[in-house]
Design goal:
Layout lengths: L2 H27 L13 H8 L3 H23 L10 H20 L5 H10 L9 H34 L9
Helix pairs in contact: 1-3, 1-6, 4-6, 5-6
Length: about 170
């Protein structure tokens, strides 16, 4: 695949990931349990999430709106109508989101791929009284959430890279 096509695929991939994530958050905001019980949160926050605490309902609406904006930003990098938008802010948004999501996916010794792997390998202790829940959430995070955020983050960084390249089709920006 030519380099330009990979860059376009990155923008479309970021848009698809944003749409999928936004759809899940919208469903949760409307009352669906769409993977809410698999969210890797500390036990007290997990209970608030599952009890539909107003803070979490509001956050779902906010995240659904942010994901919709993300779809538009990603598509602006590759669609003709995006040529009317300033290139630099789009590039900053894409790179920021990409780095944030990759860092979230890779994690620390307590979170993400690193933390989940350490917990499941027995190199890190599970929280007292919540070991079963911690192992279940670590598996879900290791197999679903962290890879999803890693792919999404790579798509955003490829989009940011594309926005930083000189592209005759994008010169009017």
């Amino acid at each position: 695949m030519p380099r330009a096509d990979r860059a376009r695929a990155g923008a479309y991939g970021a848009a698809v990931c944003a749409a999928a994530y936004g759809s899940m958050k919208l469903a949760q905001a409307l009352g669906a349990g769409a993977l809410a019980d698999k969210d890797p949160l500390p036990p007290h926050l997990r209970e608030m999430l599952l009890d539909r605490h107003p803070l979490f309902v509001a956050s779902h609406w906010l995240l659904a709106g942010a994901a919709a904006a993300g779809v538009l930003v990603a598509l602006a990098a590759v669609r003709p109508w995006g040529a009317r938008l300033p290139r630099r802010p789009l590039r900053v948004i894409a790179w920021t989101l990409g780095v944030f999501m990759i860092v979230r996916a890779v994690g620390t010794p307590e979170t993400g791929l690193i933390g989940d792997s350490l917990l499941l390998a027995g190199a890190r202790d599970a929280p007292a009284g919540h070991a079963g829940l911690a192992f279940m959430l670590a598996r879900w995070d290791l197999l679903l959430w962290s890879p999803f955020f890693l792919v999404w983050g790579v798509c955003w960084t490829v989009t940011g890279w594309r926005l930083g390249r000189r592209d005759p089709a994008m010169e009017s920006r």
